[in-house]
Prior knowledge:
- The complex is a heterodimer.
- By secondary structure, chain A is an alpha+beta fold.
- Chain A has one domain: Chemotaxis protein chec (3-Layer(aba) Sandwich).
- Chain A is built from five helices and eight strands, in the order αββββααββαββα.
- In chain A, strands 1, 2, 3, 4, 5, 6, 7 and 8 form an eight-stranded antiparallel sheet that branches.
- In chain A, strand 7 and strand 8 form a beta hairpin.
- By secondary structure, chain B is α+β, with helices and mostly antiparallel strands.
- Chain B has one domain: CATH 3.30.1330.200.
- In chain B, strand 9 and strand 10 form a beta hairpin.
Amino acid sequence: MSTQKKFEELNDVNSMPYDILREVGNIGAGNATTALSQLIHAKVDMTVPKVELLNFPELSDIVGSAEKTVVGILLNLSGDIGGMMMFMIDYSAARHLVNQLLGDEYSSNAEYFSEMDLSALKEIGNIISGAYLSALSSLTGLKIIESIPYMAIDMAGAILSVPAIAFGELGDKALLIESEFNEIDYSVNGFFILIPTEESYGKILSSLGM
Amino acid sequence: MIRVGMADLNICMSPDAITTLGLGSCVGIVLYDTTLKLAGLAHIMLPDSTQIRSNSNVAKFADTGIDALVQLMEKNGAKKSRLIAKIAGGAQMFKFSSENSMLCVGKRNIEATKIKLESLGIRIIAEDTGDSYGRTIEFYPETGELLIKTVGKTEKII
């Protein structure tokens, strides 16, 4: 017997749902960080995930400034869980990741990404988002179908407006489970952001016995 | 510089200026009373409040957001008949393969904005809309200029 679960209960950071979501973020991002680490043959650390219930005007603040240029890779989620998964990294960090992946022969310091760079970036996004989502799926026993990865290189605010709008139809707040990761040597900073719908939020908690 | 966030609106009087950062599919609507040098800026996210269940924040929608901005400006002495508009934004940030209307919200935001402004008799004298990139806009009531900044392109004034 489960009652309708609402985002509002997350306003209490000491609540059980809050802890559970943080653990969901931990497991998802942990798996994704391992995948990233293997992909670029480098040690990658991650921070303890943050669970936040944000109003739209605050959304772009999570990555610093709304004007900062970032690479955003977005996957639409369907199946048992609806929502979006976003993988976001700084422009310069993206350059470093691509060079690591393609090796010395193809690495470049160019200011713009070539077609091959873009394709490699998308693949990085795809692999690590997939790692995040498969961990989430095994943990909850819920089926998650992910779309192909969509990529944009632009201002953080403009990119984050996409999930904001998608959830703006449903409410005035968005639930974000963010994990930040760092590659030790180059401090490649990035974020995984899982944005489930309110309905999926309830499903995730129920599947974990809440 | 007065800053307007997402799903927010505000007004600004010369010599101050007003800005909103990182417009993606959202539309930034500047209304300007040339006589008072009073400007208003709304950063709307969605086209139509009547289609949405949770519509308490009027600044979130083109229809109610523009109404609210006009009212706020009138309260501060502006005359609706004197207002002109400049709009920017409404991009499609990701090249989604499907024609899902939810994902083409930029285009719908521009359309709804234009329809609303027309119904109020407010003329759009300049726009920089559509395409696939984000925009930061700054409006200067002193000159009536709208500065548009983008990533990797030169700034422009409309």
